[in-house]
Amino acid sequence: MKAVAVYPGKAHSVHLEELPRPQLSDVPNGRGVLVKVLKVGVDATDAEINEALYGNAPVGSDFLVLGHECFGRVEAVGPSVTHVRPGDYVTSTVRRPGGSIFDRIGRSDITTEEVYYERGINLLHGYMTEYFVDDLEYIIKVPESLKHLHVLCEPASVAYKAIDEAMHAQRRLQVWEPKTAFVLGSGQIGLLTTMILRLRGIRTFTIARSEAPNLKAEIAAAFGSTYVSTKKTSLKELAQKVGKPDLIIESTGHSGVAFEAMEILNLNGAMVWTSITGGQRSIQVPSDKINLEWVLGNKLLLGSVNSNYRHFEKAIADLGYAEQMFPGVLQRILTHPVHGLENYQKMIELLEDPSTLKVFMNVSED
Description:
The chain is an alpha/beta fold. The chain contains 10 helices and 19 strands. It has helices at about 45-50, 100-105, 155-170, 190-200, 215-220, 235-240, 255-260, 285-295, 310-325, 345-350; strands at about 1-5, 15-20, 30-40, 65, 70-75, 90, 95, 115-120, 125, 130-135, 140, 180-185, 205-210, 225-230, 245-250, 270-275, 300-305, 335-340, 360. α8 links the parallel β16 and β17 (about 300-305). α3 crosses α4 (about 190-200) and α3 crosses α9. It starts with a strand and ends with a strand.
């Protein structure tokens, strides 16, 4: 079967590979789920892996199959599988457990091991192929009523986790009810974060460079957020105008923005970094000022990456809720389909276009 892969460490090496079709027996103890891949989302992570900024092939292989945002249909299940059956629509988590205590209790998304395993990213082949088999533990059912949102499940789980981790950590304050949130970045993570915050009634400002009108601004506004362009209003100016945010979720992919935002967080506030920055950028920051204000202000900084089964379930529930509260808005994120694995070069071209919102590969027909 066909798969889209790269040679890790070699820039611009995306190509087609031939793989054997997986079997249920590849997963022991009857726990296997065979999935026909219907769609695979791609994002900046895939582009940066193709640019050789990070990513590693599985042991024994010189290539890495791309794709960590999957949507498919169950073809067959092992005898131990009860939560899905053939014909069900599903997605699958990305990270797989190592040997730390967190991995052993189902929290591989916060592993303490420096060597981590992520499908389509690091040491495990991804989903950009015709079929895959996985253990039942990592397969999440998607309601048929949400199949039109397909590859948004994984990024929504990442957005959900970022907010959930901040809320959980802020229990240290006994009572913490964020009133105002800044979402930095208006890509898929930024917009899905905006959606989740608005579903919870939090006043939200979605902040990006591009000036409105544009599609991202329209989607943010449709969720009930205020879209702000930093070309017109800086973060400091916005904080002075509307008040310092209690919660900041950073998803720009620009480390300079992440550090700049540290200067505007409210007292007892929480900031979550979700960006993966694979470059070599260096900046200067007012470190003494930041240090003083963060210590005296009891401020919290979290890094959040990946997500586990629970985050997927909660995020899918929020997608369903949002379909009722903001009908038709989510589907507008899915802007650029590419048809067929053989058109992988078109996929890369679209990822390199800064005006592109969401690229996804239509691998096969439903």
